């Protein structure tokens, strides 16, 4: 309304415009005075200007994925102490909101008669240190050239994605590539438990032999529902929400999806996770190893 008056007052006059619009001339003059002398504004308004600049920075750094809760947590981590309700109010006023996660469908092709390892997890998804428990799963993406699949391996301790692969074939080669990456990137850890559902890809001879040769211990869910591999299902959901459903309405094919899955780097290095105290997975692991070093020095 102020902008409209500015643009038309030379032709019609401020007083005449204000008589037609629902605004008093004094309100207009006050707004213009505050515009030219920002220091005259209320302390709250001045604080809001600072907060909204920081909120917008954090929100845009997350590729507009963060909602109120994570923006507020990141502000606190950056040393900017503000009430959560203030963040919520300003984000709403400036039409900023995070992404919402929906539900997917079950895609596992399992065989009850296929030999498989015991369930060593029994839905107790907890780990005391990195490379204690990995969980593996894959999800699907519809593209214009057909279905594409993305496999993940997640280290449960810090929720870090340690292996991933995008493929247009839902086969052993796909999950094997993710496994090979995880083993190499984590420096060939021994006695890590690898938990998956009963998908035939994870029960294949090549896959199980690779785990055995690498000192990885296989664990397979028993009841065959999503709760058997809840953390992997959660990461799949985040991937669909923050990448597939969010970035595009239409994907071209495997190369298109693979480029977008560089999201993993942001996920591991920057994304705040509520389950580990609103820090990134790599930061959480770093704190763990830093504490180990301090204990070693103290001993």
How would you characterize the overall build of this protein?
With 299 residues, the protein is α/β, with parallel strands linked by helices. It folds into three domains: 1-39, no CATH class; 41-100; 133-295, Nucleotidyltransferase, domain 5 (2-Layer Sandwich). The protein contains 13 helices and five strands. The protein has helices at residues 2-12, 14-20, 25-36, 43-61, 68-77, 84-93, 172-185, 200-203, 205-214, 230-247, 254-260, 263-269, 281-298, and strands at 133-143, 146-155, 160-167, 193-196, 217-220. A five-stranded mixed beta sheet has the order 3-2-1-4-5, with helices on both faces. Strand 2 and strand 3 (160-167) form a beta hairpin. The N and C termini lie far apart (69 Å).
Give a quick summary of the entry.
The protein is of the alpha/beta class. The chain has helices at residues 2-12, 14-20, 25-36, 43-61, 68-77, 84-93, 172-185, 200-203, 205-214, 230-247, 254-260, 263-269, 281-298; strands at residues 133-143, 146-155, 160-167, 193-196, 217-220. The protein has a 5-stranded mixed β-sheet with strand order 3-2-1-4-5, with helices on both faces.
CATH topology of the largest domain: Nucleotidyltransferase, domain 5
The SSE string, one letter per element, is HHHHHHEEEHEHHEHHHH
**CATH hierarchy: architecture of the largest domain:** 2-Layer Sandwich
Beta-strand percent range: 5-15%
Taken together, the total number of domains comes to 3
CATH class wording of the largest domain? Alpha Beta
End-to-end distance:
69 Å
Regions with little confidence, pLDDT below 50 for 5+ residues: none
Globular, elongated, flat, extended or rod-shaped: what is the shape?
Answer: elongated
Main sheet characteristics: 5 strands, mixed
Care to count the β-strands? 5
Q: Nearest-angstrom radius of gyration?
A: 26 Å
The DSSP helix count reads 13
State the strand order across the main sheet: 3-2-1-4-5
CATH superfamily of the largest domain: Ribonuclease H-like superfamily/Ribonuclease H
Helical coverage, percent range: 40-55%
- Kindly state the mean pLDDT as a whole number? 85
Structural class: alpha/beta
